[in-house]
Design a protein that fits this description.
The chain has 16 helices and seven strands. By secondary structure, the chain is mostly helical. The protein has a three-stranded antiparallel β-sheet with strand order 5-6-7. It has a two-stranded antiparallel ribbon with strand order 1-2. It binds a DNA duplex (20 and 20 nucleotides) through helix 4, helix 6 and helix 12.
DNA sequence: TACCAGTCGTTCGCGTAGAG
DNA sequence: CTCTACGCGAACGACTGGTA
């Protein structure tokens, strides 16, 4: 049976509990609601205090809540259109909802998110959360067989193509701000196998300048952050063998150029056009793709995220230790990684030097 | 130890801000 | 007004850890 419609709804610009308003919205109002108020309501109905419920709602990252919201909205819309009340919810209705999503052309991954969202709503049928209901499980297997998740790429581009292009972008002091930005972003991505998320989190506040390296300490939650997990530092070391690929030099130049432009933010990466605001992950991704394209790599096939596999694959080829690769890339599950890279690794040269060495 | 439910970040496409 | 870089929403793939 479906949980009741919520009685607690945030005001649009809510951010704190004090802005909570109490009223009795219908399903329609639910659709307009832009957060997890239904889930909050479920907690509160169980006698959990508002403060406790707020903490529990933080168990999901912002991105997960945002993603669930889409399917929660669709779910309520579906119920409203068919005039289905909470007491009528059955497994057939849930399956019908999922089928409609399928018929709308959604893939396995998206429908799987819809399933998780319904579970998060606390929808229980036959004493199990709908996500784990045997018929839903059966349905999902069917969706998977019909529209399997396609793994991105089997192969990966050659890092040396990008290095060749980056070498042309020198000397750094003669480059435009745009060029320095692109070069810097790509060099950090390559030498640390970072996600764009990590690049966005780099802040001049948590930057430490040593004699021949910059170290960024990340005190934020990364994708892989869990209790007991310590974020790896992002280290940008000088690369004496080839000044043109020296991320340390490029960063020094970038900081020099952007110091006066970075007014309202501590974020390292800011837009190279006025008003030079802090950029989002979308923009950083786009920057990386620009470099890939200019290096002659097909960007229809390879996205910004492919830098991770390109860098780690090359590191593996040059016998960087598995532990070093995993720590750099932020992979915590040895088995997952070993599935793809299960060759015996001989010695343990450092990650960044091997990625840059040709 | 293999699988899978659940979680989280990235990508794509499109509307839009804002500089020139 | 035009042009281009930006950022948001929807959809998707990457990844994990519990469990059978």
């Amino acid at each position: 049976m479906l949980i009741d419609t919520p009685i607690l709804v945030y005001s649009k610009e809510r951010s704190t509990d004090s802005s909570l308003q109490r009223h009795c919205p219908s399903i329609e109002q639910n659709i307009e609601s832009n957060d997890m108020s239904c889930i909050r309501k479920q907690f509160i109905d169980r006698g959990i205090s508002t403060k406790t419920a707020s903490i529990m709602l933080c168990s999901w990252r912002k991105s997960t809540k945002k993603q669930y919201k889409v399917f929660v909205k669709k779910w309520f819309s579906y119920c409203r259109e068919r005039k289905i009340s909470e007491v009528q919810i059955s497994i057939n209705i849930v399956l019908d909802y999922l089928t409609i999503l399928y018929e709308n052309g959604l893939g396995y991954s998206s429908i799987n998110t819809a399933r998780s969202a319904l579970s998060a709503l606390g929808l229980v049928i036959d004493n199990v959360l709908v996500g784990a209901h045997p018929l839903v499980v059966r349905f999902m297997k069917g969706v998977y067989n019909l529209r399997p998740t396609k793994s991105k790429n089997i192969c990966v581009w050659d890092v040396s193509l990008v290095l060749n292009y980056l070498r042309k972008l020198s000397p750094v002091n003669m480059l435009t701000l745009q060029e320095v930005t692109l070069k810097l972003v790509m060099l950090i991505a390559l030498t640390n196998a970072t996600r764009v998320q990590t690049l966005k989190f780099l802040s001049v506040d948590c930057m430490e300048k040593l004699r021949d390296e910059f170290v960024f300490h990340l005190d934020v939650l990364l994708k892989q952050s869990r209790p007991g997990y310590k974020n790896p530092d992002v280290k940008l070391r000088a690369f004496p063998p080839d000044r043109r690929l020296c991320v340390y030099t490029v960063l020094k130049e970038y900081i020099k150029r952007t110091e006066i432009l970075r007014v309202h933010t501590k974020q390292l990466l800011i837009s190279y056009i006025k008003p030079h605001k802090a950029v989002t992950c979308s923009t950083i991704s786009r920057w990386i793709k620009v470099v890939l394209q200019k290096s002659g790599i097909d960007t229809r096939q390879f996205s910004a995220h492919s830098v991770r596999s390109a860098a780690t694959s090359k590191a593996k080829l040059y016998n960087v230790s598995l532990a070093d690769i995993m720590s750099k890339a932020g992979w915590t599950n040895v088995n997952t990684f070993a599935t793809f890279y299960n060759k015996r690794i001989i010695n343990s040269n450092s990650f960044d030097v091997n990625v840059l060495n040709n």
